[in-house]
């Protein structure tokens, strides 16, 4: 079963990579102003006057895919962490490429997303304890999405 999950995650990563090579640049975040905008939103997201923000379906699908990938892996094997980190990074990048949100909802989404990159980077560490620490941190963090977004 574990091998099957790895194959599925690899196929997802390959699809994401191949989709990223298309010339559809208008959805990519290569615009420097847009990237700079993301860098300024590093605080914890907040609700919209007590209500959840409306996210685009592609973002919600990407987050759900990441949560599912996390749930299929054991946090005891460093090789799993590296493979999982690569697969999660591919999905994470796809979320950014498919981001169509605007305004404050967009800012709040990126406040939620940006800490994930640090966790993914930590998971790719060659140190098993560091990798496990960031895996556990990510595992606890990801479900917060439903606290802020619908």
Description:
This protein is mostly helical and 150 residues long. It has a domain at 55-150. 68% of the residues lie in helices and 0% in strands. Residues 7-41 have low confidence and may be disordered.
Topology:
Layout: H1 2-20, H2 32-39, H3 57-72, H4 78-97, H5 103-123, H6 128-141, H7 145-148
Helix pairs in contact: 1-4, 3-4, 4-5, 5-6
- Give the low-confidence spans: 7-41
The largest sheet is:
none
| Proportion of residues in helical segments | 55-70%
Shape: elongated
Using the CA coordinates, give the radius of gyration.
15 Å
Structural class of the helix and strand makeup? mainly alpha
Count every helix, treating DSSP H or I runs of 4 or more residues as helices. Answer: 7
Mean pLDDT: 78
- Secondary-structure element order, N to C: HHHHHHH
* DSSP strand count: 0
Q: Whole-Å distance between the termini?
A: 32 Å
- Percent of residues in β-strands: under 5%
